[in-house]
Amino acid sequence: AFSPAAHAAYVVDEATGTVLVVDGRSHAVRARIEGGRGLADLRFAPGGRLGFAPRADRDVVQVLDTALNRFVHAVDVGREPERVSFSSAFAYVRSKGTEMVTMIPLAGLERGGPVSTARVTGGQRPPGAAVSPAAADGIVPAPEPGAVLIANAPDQTIYYYKEGMSAPMGSFRNYQRRPRAVMVVDRSLAEQDPGRYTTTAQLPPAGEYLVPFLLDAPRAVHCFPLTVRTDPTIAAGRRPSLRVEPLLEGGTVPAARPARVRFKVSDLTLGGPRTDLRDLTVLAVLPEGWQQRVVARPHGEGTYEAELTLPRPGIYFVYFAVSSLRLGFNQIPHALLRAADVGDPPGREGGPR
């Protein structure tokens, strides 16, 4: 872990329990700190002066002071601590063997002396009951100051905890999945200059909208108009969206003989028929493995003609591609063709025989 306060990287050697202090500029080893076997991780609190290293073998978290380059505290926590996360005021210690999360106040740790802790439930079951640990954090600060989100995989739940409370204030269900880690995307309004607040949002399609605004204190409610326009740069680089529809007399194609099948091509981006395609490729497929690929020829007014020989009666999947527009077979909706014997009556189902 890198400490901006010491401008050095602190590297844990798990085999020996030694922490190497590597200078951020010269890359030379400044110091070696003995922490004891069992150290496997090291993380720095905001500011970078205090580092926290869990020791699962002793059920403690050791606190490193970079100003002294030595461990100054060994704080008792839950069974098998595995990860430390931070808010602006607390270090949160997650342990495999208990559902309780240990909170260590950051203020005053650099002065030495006894360390007070608090514990809050992080769920109904300990994280060790999960299938496997995650490399990402399971406890992260919420957008609101003094609050965190706690992911509990065995509970299939993400808990919302407000500092100062004895238990989480609420939770988010995870749709029968196991949240092993959590990350916050903060889109809340933030003050950039006095009286000017900004946020980032993905706008809806172009059009006229009303945006409601609610402020709790002081109470204010207002709706203001918003015009969303199409970005010409994005629109110019967007791939066209095509729809291809077969034009069939009687709804079927004769089986086991060449047949000219016409298709109507519409441009959904620009609107209207697409008349300028020279490389509309048609791929007819039977689920059993047969396929035929041909290039359709323009037939005027947005229609194209392809000569297909469908070997037997049945339902065929037909896929389309236009290489000049960089549209593959999976980017244009497919169509269905029904092949039937010439003597089949209209409406007879022509499944594979």
Describe the protein in words:
This protein is mainly beta. 2% of the residues lie in helices and 46% in strands. A 5-stranded mixed sheet has the order 22-29-28-24-25, with no helix packed on it. A 4-stranded antiparallel sheet has the order 1-2-3-4, with no helix packed on it. The chain has a 4-stranded antiparallel sheet with strand order 5-6-7-8, with no helix packed on it. The longest helix has 6 residues, at 232-237. The chain is elongated and about 95 Å long. The model is unreliable at 344-353 (pLDDT under 50).
Output the number of helix runs: 1
Approximately how much beta-strand content do the residues carry? over 45%
Number of strands: 29
Q: Which structural class fits the helix and strand makeup?
A: mainly beta
Using only C-alpha atoms, the radius of gyration works out to 32 Å
Question: What pattern of helices and strands is seen along the backbone?
Answer: EEEEEEEEEEEEEEEEEEEEHEEEEEEEEE
Distance N terminus to C terminus? 67 Å
Average residue-wise pLDDT = 89
